[in-house]
Amino acid sequence: MADGRPVEGVYLSGALDLEALFGRYFAAHSDRVRLRRPEEIERPEEVCFALTWLPTADAFRPYPNLKLAASIAAGVDSIVHCPSLPADAIVTRVRDENQGDLMAGFAAWQVVWHHRNMRFHINHQMRGEWARRNVDDYIPPRDCTVGLLGYGFMGKAIARVVTAMGFPVVAAVRTAPPEQANGVTFEAGEDAILKTAARSRILINVLPLTHATRGILNALLFSAMPKGAALVQLGRGEHLVDEDLNRALDSGQLAGASLDVFSREPLPPDHPWWRDPRILVTPHQASDCSPVLVAAQVCRAALDVVAGRRPETAVHRANGY
Ligand SMILES: NC(=O)c1ccc[n+]([C@@H]2O[C@H](COP(=O)([O-])OP(=O)(O)OC[C@H]3O[C@@H](n4cnc5c(N)ncnc54)[C@H](OP(=O)(O)O)[C@@H]3O)[C@@H](O)[C@H]2O)c1
């Protein structure tokens, strides 16, 4: 860019055709950045940044001067753990207020789904039956605590909406709880996650995937929850120990679960969870970033790194999110 040419970038994904998904949105920034597929790059040493999602293990290797690996979404777990990512490359995520609002609305739906056992009404609709339920069948919202694992961008957006619906919200935090609680209570410190689970009739996971959080939704956590509680899994598939969830549902320890993310995506068509009436399956649909905003934020980040500035959307690579 210093010589007036656009900053060179490359699409790197082992799972998605990023050019097809984002190419037209980056076209609006073509005077400042140029993104191409790996096979179109003649001089890999000129590539400064990558737009990336689920990169293959050696995806970054051909680009010795790569300064930035930009995720197309909020999560960066597949990028920060990629073995070929240069040690000094900055990794960015997308921060989209609209994405937070979408996530909050989705979580609100799951809270109502489990709190009011909406499957009951869907089943009766299928049979054309007018089956009303007594208000005493539900725990009053004010007595139905919703727990949050992950009190970051997504967790705060969810807390704002769920507290407004009249449910007490408890969030797990690792350090001192924030002063501005907005009606949220906190469990802090080492065993914050288990303590939060123990208070939660409905437990929502929006943790990032790190070494510390992989497999965190497991038998120990389910056994800490009140009997008949529900799990809402919106983080990453690898947070969940699948067999432990099946056992917790079979024993009645958990009454139900909503699963939006899976360790294998797409969830195979013959997977039993599709047909399990205790589970609500959605296809990693809880929220998404606007591609217009992705292009604008990644373009800004590319210009920042070339100018020696740290982009606002940079994550802490050592933390893994
Ligand atoms: N299903 C979907 O459609 C969808 C959409 C968007 C995002 N997601 C998932 O949601 C995740 C979170 O997104 P975000 O934007 O909210 O991320 P974020 O702003 O980085 O927030 C992550 C939060 O998790 C906390 N955390 C990290 N490790 C923890 C641990 N071991 N114990 C307790 N808290 C811990 C962090 O606490 P500190 O403040 O202490 O660092 C931070 O508050 C993403 O990484 C992605 O996996 C899913």
Number of domains: 2
Helix tally equals 9
- Distinct small molecules: NADP nicotinamide-adenine-dinucleotide phosphate
Order of helices and strands: EHEEEHEHHEHEEHEHEHEEH
Give a structural overview.
The protein has 2 domains: 7-96 and 289-306, NAD(P)-binding Rossmann-like Domain (Rossmann fold), CATH 3.40.50.720; 97-281, 3-Layer(aba) Sandwich (Rossmann fold). It has 321 residues and is α/β, with parallel strands linked by helices. The protein starts with 6 loop residues before the first strand and ends in a 15-residue tail after the last helix. The strands form 2 sheets. It has a 7-stranded parallel sheet. Strands 2-1-3-4-5 form a 5-stranded parallel sheet. The chain is 29% helix and 18% strand. The mean pLDDT is 96. The longest helix is centred in the N-terminal third of the chain and has 19 residues, at 97-115. The radius of gyration is 22 Å and the shape is elongated. The structure holds NADP nicotinamide-adenine-dinucleotide phosphate. NADP nicotinamide-adenine-dinucleotide phosphate (NAP) binds next to helix 5. NADP nicotinamide-adenine-dinucleotide phosphate is lined by residues 74-75, 103, 150-155, 172, 174-175, 193, 206-210, 212-213, 234-236, 260-261, 284, 286-287, 321.
